[in-house]
Amino acid sequence: MPLSFPLPPALRSGPRPLAPPRTGLAAQGSIAAVSRRRWARARLARLLPRLRAGLGSALVGVLLTWSGAALLPPARAATPTPAQLQALEAALNGQDPAALQALLQPGPGLNPALLERRWSALRQQFSNARWQISPGAPTQAGQPTVNLRVVGSRSEAGTTYRLSAEQQLELHSDGQRIQAENLLREQTILRSGDTDLPVSVLIPDAVLTGQRYDVDVIFDDPLDGAVVAGGVQALTAQQVAAMESPPLEFSVLGGGGLFKTAQAPFLPGSQTWAVLLVHPRGVVSATKRVRVVSDRAGLLP
Question: Does residue 110 belong to any structural domain of this protein?
């Protein structure tokens, strides 16, 4: 689903330890390094308010709605035909909400009215958004899946924002309209800046109930002395459903990304993470949904 969250008004960092005094050339080098860090922090502080106007309302997410749990398909449900999937892709890329509604009906995990509102909101934010539907890998039970990808861009206040989002879905049809879905994987990335900063989102697609796991998002390229900042937060189910903007606490990062250890809930369901990385050359925000299952067989859909 589309998520939105603003950048915080200021860069926050914790207290830094005092370094022992230096003398001679070492002291000069230390002073130069401190000056570079202060300059980079000042630049980031100036960058954040300017980007807030663009990223604050930008939708970071994808389109279809889900219930957050594995769903049983309706009785006599079948896989959508290639013609249905082609029609769905055409409707998503079109301008007529009625064309989208004609292909859907309410069912497990699928709310056509909510889908239409979020589709319209995403089109407002990224008027050139394009959806692509392609066959996905079958589930362990042999059920076909589809991959849904949406890309788009927009410019605001001299800054360009580029959206890329992907879902893997299990869809069910009554032969005429799609009537149920089960979300298997989801990841979204929104970038700003002149070039795409390469990052790796190292967050698992699924974990066991109560399991401790890593939530890591890292820059792929060396920082070369750049000062970066970031924040990460788990979204509540209410924030996901309402597309609320979570406040993210920021800190200057000592390494090349964000590294966090999290614990999964003790009941099956899902967790959704919001991550923001700030670099002097731009900003990368990401959301990732993690399925929480009660047995190892469910780790692979």
Answer: yes
Residue (of 173, 177, 174, 181) closest to 102 by Cα position: 177
**3-state secondary structure labels for all residues of 245-258:** CCCCCCEECCCCEE
Q: What pLDDT digit, counting tens, does each position of 168-193 carry?
A: 999 999 888 999 888 899 998 989 88
Tell me, what's the pLDDT at 110? 86
CA distances from 264 to 209, 272, 273 (A): 6, 11, 12
Residue 158 gets the label, from left (phi > 0), alpha (psi -120 to 50) or beta, of: left
Q: How far apart are CA 191 and CA 277, in angstroms?
A: 10
In a domain, residue 104? The reply is yes
Q: Which domain holds residue 203?
A: 2-13+32-294
Distances (CA, A) of 179 to 116, 121, 142, 188, 265: 15, 22, 19, 25, 29
* Contact (CB, 8 A) for 22 and 33: no
Strands 145-156 and 60-61: unpaired
Q: Residue 285 class from Cβ within 10 Å (0-12 exposed, 13-18 middle, 19+ buried)?
A: buried
For residues 295 and 205, the answer to whether their CB atoms sit within 8 Å is: no
